[in-house]
Structure prediction request, 653 residues.
Amino acid sequence: MRKLNVRFLIWLLVATAILVGGLWGVHYLQHDRIAAALLWQAETARQENRLDQAAQHYERYLEFRPNDSRAVLAFADMLEEEMNRQPLATRQPRKIVFLLERVLELEPDRDDVRRRVVNHYLLPRLRRYKDAEAHLDILQRKSPEDGSLWQQRAICQEQTGQYLAAAESLEQAIRFPPDQVRSHELLARLLRRRLNRAQRADEVIAQMVRNHPDSPEAYLARARYRMEFNLGDFADDARQAISLAPENPEAILLYARSLQLAGKVEEAKRQLEEGIRRHPQDARMYRHLAWIEYFAKRLDSARQWLQAGIIACPEAHELQTALAELLIQGKMFDQVQKIVDDLKSRGVREERIKYLIARIAVEQGHWTDAVQQLERLRAESRTDPELAIQVHIVLAQCFKQLGDSERQADSLRRVLEMDAQSLPARLGLAALHANAGRLNEAIKEYEQILHLPSVPDHVPLELARLMIRRKIRNRADATPWADIEKLIAQAEQRRPNAVDAWLVRSEFLLARQRANDALALLAANVPASKEPRAWIQYAHCAEIVDRSGPDILDQAQRVLGDLPELRLKRAAILLQRSPLTARGIVAALEKAPAEWTADQRHQLWQGLAELYLVMQDDASARRLLRQLAQERPHDLHCRVLLAESAIQDGQLD
Prediction:
């Protein structure tokens, strides 16, 4: 039997141990060197603003050193700085939160990091309110008199339906600094909106101003509160805020808005231009100026302000989106595509890109394609209320073009569920009711619109027009004529030479049996006008006074050219005179000139078809409606008219 060489075995084990130890030492030194090199590369890339490369180096470094809380925090800081340049609704903090939570695992006493985690959980892209509350529990055990923590807890409670608890938290928040003004504002809004305690809400706002009489933020908060709940003029608050803080951008914007509402548009523009001089990187200034120019129909100037804003605020994606909207309306689709490509390269949310593409389809008249795109986008935009509102407003526009009034109304009501003060939605519903002959509902909508901020000039006139129609339809209507005349007078005072003002005034005079006065008013104003509706009203009034309506329409055709509106008015006058005589003349009006657009041709066909139905010439009506349905296969209103005509005539096939 062979004997074991113990001495050799011992030497072998010692040599192996030395070798393994040496290898481990070499590996340890190399591991440290690689980790140190990766950290150096990450920090260098960050300093040189090569953030993508810095992120890669941080990721690799943390594979070597996962417990280096300083590096984890540095990585989170870098990502947070990059995210903070993005619009609030587009910020995606998941990776940042993961890193900050890791820091808290390693250093649970870092309250500064915990507060940052709470802030991120409250962002629109996360909304993890229960997780935020868990961190707030820890923070408030150490800082029970920190008003900002009570404020954040109230936000979490309100968003999870705990309205009474949220009110109690805000009652605590208004007692403690640092942001008591904001806490008062949040409490008042919660009391009014969620708990129906308007009196207590007003008391909270009054208390806020009493406690902070020298704070411009207090007056700004009261102005926002008054605007949101239609509680009267906020001009005094705007003046007080701007006097206390003439360079405060919020005060400048609010004061400009108050000037605009008072009809001092040029002064509002000067205020905003001064705001841009003081705050050249505040995108809101450019956007507000652009919208003032847009509503004044100075589209080139609006585009110039938006373009200036994009240069000054390259990260303000909302300016590019607004510019794209204007370019789409101007049918400058090539320029829009450049903006879309730029937004994609900047990582703007896909839903925003899809919305702009759908808007192009709308402007090109591809209604069905647009509806399909917007219906898909409706589900994707639920986490972005501003975009969801825009999607539903454009959907309503598409359904209007397709003749689907039920789905149009549904889209507008969805907007009002998200924003009860949405002016486009309220105007759309009012017009929808008016076109359907539901005058009471339309008047009710316009009366609500009058209490909204930034009411367009035409709203009082449209309300007066509907009230006139209701009194003509129902002589027992109790609305005093003096109230209607007051609405007209107010509009005339704001814009004395506006076409709508003297048109509604003429309707008022006609309804009051003063046709000669109405004709004199129109004769003094219409000949210089290029508005077809003005000439149509002139012809209508002339026909009532001395049966010279067709002569006025001949004059209108010489001034405006051959338009479908003028042909339809001529047919209506002839029909009113004699249905039998009108039949042959109306048929001659069907042939559209070659230079007319498809929309003009369709407008003529639909109008004449409806007149044929009044004349009980169902065959001619169906012939025109079939032509219209062939060119507009998705026009629901046209197909309904066609079906009703066929049913009445017994042609069920």
